[in-house]
Amino acid sequence: TTALTAVLTTVLTTVLTAALTTALTAVLTTVLTTALTAVLTTVLTTALTAVLTTVLTTVLTAVLTTVLTTVLTTVLTTALTTALIIAPHPHAATYHTVTS
Fold this sequence. Notes:
Elements: H1 2-86
């Protein structure tokens, strides 16, 4: 009886360990992969969207503000200078007239 118990214990332990390890590995791999994929996709998408939106908005605002300010200042300065030189105000000369 003792020998049979020892053999059955060894055989059942080996068989059940192998079966449970295989089954649990398969189940847990599938469950964890699915769960973690869903959770990490949501978390990373949300986090990265927030961070990248903030960073890109800040950077692009700064860059575009600088570029547009420089370009528009140059263009408008040139246009206004040209316009004033070509067509001065009709009363502009009266400001420089010296009366005797």
